[in-house]
Amino acid sequence: MAAEEDLGTSLAAVLAPALGDAVTVEGLRRLSGGASRETWAFRARPAEGPTVPLILQRERPGGARTGSGMASEAALLRAAADQGVPVPEVLVTDADPAGEALGRPFMVVRHVEGETIPRKLLRDEEFAEARPVLARQLGEVLARIHRIPTDAVPGLEEQDQVVQFRELLDGFGQPHPAFELGFRWLEAHRPPSTATAVVHGDFRTGNFIVGPEGLRAVLDWEIAHLGDPMEDLGWLCTKAWRFGSPHPVGGFGPFEELFAAYEEHAGTPVDPQVVRWWQTLGTLKWGIMCIIQAATHLSGAVRSVELAAIGRRVCEQEHDLLLLLEEG
Amino acid sequence: MREFLERDVMEATEGRVRFHTRVAVNVLAIVQRELEQGPAQVAAHAERLASLGFADDAELAAAIRRGDLDDRWAEVIACVHEAVRDKLAVANPKYLEQPGP
């Protein structure tokens, strides 16, 4: 297809400074994409040596911007790598000198081999040795993320998510007594901030590339922001990311292993009650996100049977939220 | 209808259509449980709301938000949770067996 040939030619041009002028692009194929960006996989063939598997992410034309944009995310990936966080290596972005050829904001990163699908990671024999080490690995990696200097990346903002999600829920005008109880509890029990750090914002099973030996890369830095680092620990332990597993840390292991590894590498203590507050907020946030997804279907904007079934996820989150509130 | 989808359509399709058929089968199962349990659940919920002094969920939600029920916290949590358990018994009964939180 002509459009893909054009994209391949443009890609070769932006990759030339990194991989040499003779580089060519092959095997270009479109992967899934979010609302705001499209993702492509391809191989770059330099003049010499083996081909290099790469991933292109670029903003959709006129796409809905989320987070702080592609350039900010690429800068963040590089800052995370500096702290020893396993992330895909950024080769080139639209902010680099050769980057203008692609027109829209983009980044090209090295492909990391491995699995991301939660149910496979939590059940397949292939990952039997990875599962027991992941809670500790994730604790160490979070400590490294929270060490990224807060001024390393421009454009990261701090938001009060209780207020933000309160407004989102109010926008629907439906009564949700369970979520009202959640907000009431969160407001009454909000812990003092433990620190201000770079927070990944979506650090959970599904956004990790894992091999048989353990964690290989942390993905999806789109909604990174400044905030209390305990947010990342709480979100990782939110029940939705266990996918039916009894283990609280992303379905992989116990709280104690996550907390111990985090404390060891961050040098600061973890208060389980603070993590629990963030886990409670995480459950409420996911419940409201499920309402948004169900409403998208009902308004006719996206037609699919799958989305119609998402509505039932709302009462699953209400149930989990009430279990948390009952335990105090 | 559900049996037709489960047997004939599932066997004759694959990939995305098969996946959506599976989801549709689940939705039909929800509808079936709703028909069986719905009326009794609606009555039970009205009774629970009345015991707290409210006519509907909107009144209850507004009262929780204002803090009017802070001194009846455990009672309100129990009441709301019963309603949510009823909804889950229709939407996804297996979820009630999952360990948590």
Q: How many domain regions of chain B?
A: 1
Radius of gyration of chain A from CA coordinates? 21 Å
* Helix/strand/pairing category of chain A: alpha+beta
Query: Strand percentage of chain A, roughly?
Result: 5-15%
Number of domains of chain A: 2
Portion of residues in helices of chain A? 40-55%
Question: Strand-and-helix sequence of chain B, N→C?
Answer: HHHH
Poorly predicted segments of chain B: none
State mean pLDDT of chain A (0 to 100 scale): 90
SSE sequence of chain A, one letter per element = HEEEHEEHHHHEEEEHHHH
Number of helical regions of chain B: 4
> What is the general shape of chain A?
globular
Main sheet: strands, sense, barrel of chain A: 5 strands, antiparallel
CATH 4th-level superfamily of the largest domain in chain A: Aminoglycoside phosphotransferase (APH), C-terminal lobe
**Which structural class fits the helix and strand makeup of chain B?**
mainly alpha
Number of helices of chain A: 10
Radius of gyration of chain B, taken over Cα atoms and rounded to an integer in Å: 19 Å
